[in-house]
Amino acid sequence: MEQSILHFYAEACKKFFDRLQNGEIADMEKMAESLLEDLKDLTCKLMSVVLEAANLEIRKDKDLQKELGLLMQEHDRIRSLLTSIGRIDYARDYYKEKESGGYFYPLDEMTSVEAYQRIGHNIAAKIVNATTKVSYQRAVDSVTGGSVSRQTAKNKIKEVGILEKAAPKDKSECKVLHVYADEDHAHIQDKKRRSNATKSRGKRVPYVVISEGIREECRNRRATINATHFADKDLKSAVLWDSVAGYVNEAYEVSEGSKIYIHGDGASWIKTGCDVLPNAVPVMDGYHFEKELKRISRIFPNKNIRNRVREMISKNDERGFKELMDSLVADASVSDAKKGLGSKKYILDQFEPIRNLLTLKIPGSCTEGQISHGLSERLSRDPMGWSKEGVGRMAMLRAYTNNGCKVEASDFRRIETMKEKSILQEYAENIYTHAVEGAVDWSLFEKEAFTMDKASGTQILINAYGENYGSALIN
Questions:
Q1: pTM of the model
Q2: What is the DSSP secondary structure assignment for residue 386, as one 8-state letter?
Q3: Total structural domains in the chain?
Q4: Within a domain: residue 337?
Q5: Buried/exposed 427-449: b ≥16 CB within 10 Å, e otherwise
């Protein structure tokens, strides 16, 4: 082992000086990148040597094998683990446990490497975080240089489990909360319809954002205050609203005087939020209301319809609105009459939320913006197809990262059948130190620094040259 370590160090030093002699330092940043890769490669090799030395220590420790009831099955099975510094290849022994009849690798237990694990949890977390911004393929290319497949990225997303932003420990007083609810539509691939010309169908992806209001950032630009994003991995709106209600209950002190405004386009799943959240007030999203007014204006032009509808709703004159629409429909063509009746029904169904939009002095809605930035830029803006499970998990991850959170190595669920062997964990604390003890002689770096004799002839000559050179510069 000593020879291997010294060989790796010598090889790394030779590469460094070869780069200097070849003039690579002329581009210092490029050389720094090359040296970083050399150091990563050196570290991987050193890790392999240490792990294999520890494996030999276990093989030689007959007392440990007797205590655990281990029977050797095979020497030096190769294992590869992709980590943040690169791929580490090492050999370890395979044992059978007498009492349980199971098989395992003691070295894997000591290093917390799970069965069949090929990618470290740290690098897996980096891949999953990258997938929230770019495609699976681009994510693995940027993180691993393409050494793993895009299917690996998809598998790691499944392993993460459910991720939600934790509520703050101290509750805040809730006077006003704004809840923005809307949905994105993602294309879902359907294997049963592969033979048809149309190979995908739309899937609703509900999304909710709560905030404490809106503040002015600069001219014509606003931002939500303490926004928190929510999405359900199974795309179930009932579960989503339960998560929102649970967070509100944990994060805020809601009293009788509190108001929670739910902004939306009037979809039935959004209306259920009023039954879940306390003191909820439905508010129509301004974008969708204006869109409907434009639609009515195109059907019945030159009737000043937009202002008349606004005035009637503001005054809560539902009867007057019905009479207005009925009179317009009576004089219209069959096609326009059908469209007009559709608009009439839509506005009557959303009469209260629209009146709240027009009469309550509250900030405007930003549901479309939340969907655009929260989901669409990853799920539906570019042509792409998803599985139902994939789009749900990605929506959950987008909400999680939009909350300022990051996927960590600890978020990956551990295999439930992985055994806890405390004796191996205790054993591991000393085995690595013992395995590398005396492997390298560092005494070369412990020698006393050379002290120059100031009275020596060489030192006197150097001082004289320095004085003469300084006098020449002054003159």
A1: 0.80
A2: B
A3: 4
A4: yes
A5: bbeebbeebbeeeeeeeeeeeee
